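User: Hi! I'm working on a homework problem where we have to compare a predicted structure to a textbook description. Could you give me the structure for the chain below?
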Amino acid sequence: MTPLRLTVLGAALALAALTGTGAATAAAPAVASPAAVAASTAAAVPLFTDGYGLTLVPEDTDVHSPTDFTLTVTTKQLSGKHKIRILLPAGYDADPDRRWPVTYFLHGGGGNVNDVAAAPALHSDSMITVVPDGGLKGWYVNWLMQNTAEGAANWETFHLTQVVPFIEANLRTRTDRTHRAVVGLSMGGFGALHYAQTRPDLFGHAAALSGGIDFGKWEIRGAVLATELNLSGAWCAASSSSGSGGGTCVGHGPYVDSDAIFGSPYPVFNADRVWKAVDPAAPANLAKLSNTGITLYTGNNDLIDVHTAAASKTVHERLGQLGIPSRLVDYGNGASLAPSCNGGHNYGCWAPAFADYVPRLEAAFATAG
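Assistant: Happy to help. Predicted structure tokens:
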């Protein structure tokens, strides 16, 4: 085994040893019986119809409130059923002629759509928030290997060519890029920048919180390997409804080949070409954000966020070299952000970071007209 392979696998094992870095899994909201849900859904939430390759599973709809509900869909792009949680502004029903900006929230590794409950600022009365399932280790791309224990795993296609037009066909949204944002944390921070770079026509705003956004760092490549190998504890993003930051990771699903998502991570004879092609910190990819509002948040006070801080600094500096403005908030040990924040990789920091970011995003939406 080459020294480089030992180094990358060592990073995966070191990150996997971390426990208690995320918050406990969100408690599932109380759900009425299927008959009660079927009777109340039509009156409680907007009517959704199949389309864009998505087929609804109506009996699995969870109505948490008239402005907070979760749909279940199937698609040929992914194996199994997948959830989409939707948060509507309080005035959505009262103003039937109004169209709303949309923010897509991408959860982290080991997380799920219910993680959004740990960041209440995302349930805004000025925008719609959509939380699509990103898998325990989907990494927001179409996997190179489609025959693993995960089965079909075309997450990028699911989100960008199915979920986005499905939402716009079923809800009253503003459909220009200046009224559409993509935000995410940890694994979802990678997803947010990757999607903004892949589809600058869709997203006018992007934010990454404690994001794995520099694939040039062997520590971040190692973290991806840890999720593929289901080494629980690495880059957890499971949440609790309080966002207090305790608990352990729920895991990253079944073991898959370490090359399943991005191919070989080792830079030998260009074997890591996919990693380099999708690297959010690559100058060629950063140049695609020239007309995008970019915000980065990170702490630097645990063994995970010390690396997300370095990655965020690299992205911020390279954007500056390209003449592209961005906002970097490195809150260090968390004291400058909120009493709940210890500067680590948890919702005790991410919730107040969103509380800082969302009003700024709402103002940007309003300025766009």
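For your comparison, note the following. The chain has a mean pLDDT of 88. The first strand starts at residue 55 and ends at 56. Good luck with the assignment!
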